[in-house]
Every structure is written in C-alpha cells, then in structure tokens.
Write a structure and sequence with these properties.
The structure is a single chain. It is built from 6 helices and no strands. By secondary structure, it is an all-alpha fold. 21% of the residues are buried.
C-alpha cells in the first residue's frame, strides 16, 4: 500500500509540475527561442546562445505580464488555474515579469 501511495504522490507531483510549467507560459517562451533557431538555421546564419536566451526571457516576460494583467478579466474564464495563481501571488505577478525582462536585457547585452 505504501508503494501505491508513493506512486500516486509521485504522479500527483508530476502533474502539478507540468501544470505549473504550462500555466506560467514556459512552453510559449521556449517556442520563441525555437522559432528563432529554426529561422537562423534555415537562413544559414547561426546566432550566439545569448539571442536564444533573449528570445526566451523576452517572450516569457510578455506572457507573464499579460497573465498578471488579465488575471481578473478574461483569464478567469479561459484559464482559471493560471488566473488563480496570479491572483494568489500579487507580488509575484509584478516581480516575475520584471525579472524575466532583466534577464532578457542581460542576454541581449551578452549576445
């Protein structure tokens, strides 16, 4: 019974982690870096790693800011879990976009 309970907890932790990653728009940020990579490879002009980090963090900043701004509006209907997460942590809703914007600017400066 302990093994089964442990498996359920592990599965629950995994689902919670995936839900957090999805709700916080990490796949969308990754897609920005991926499209930049695909474009640079198609054009035969490789970019430094800093540009991919800049695309990731810059896009993530925009999505986090949008989620924070709409947590009391349209996200309440379309994305209730994400809206609830941003409403629960009002301070994080301000700090997270700022941190990702700073990381994007640092990545651009180092690129």
């Amino acid at each position: 019974m302990n093994a089964e309970g442990g498996q359920r907890r592990s599965e629950s932790d995994w689902r919670r982690a995936v839900a957090w990653i999805t709700a916080h728009q990490i796949p969308m940020a990754g897609s920005a870096a991926a499209i930049l990579f695909a474009s640079s490879q198609s054009l035969g002009h490789p970019l430094s790693l800093g540009w991919y980090f800049a695309a990731f963090f810059g896009t993530w900043c925009v999505y986090l800011r949008d989620s924070a701004a709409s947590c009391n509006a349209e996200d309440t209907i379309s994305q209730p879990e994400r809206a609830a997460a941003f409403r629960r942590n009002a301070r994080w809703s301000i700090v997270a976009p700022a941190i990702t914007a700073i990381l994007a600017f640092v990545a651009i400066a180092l690129a």
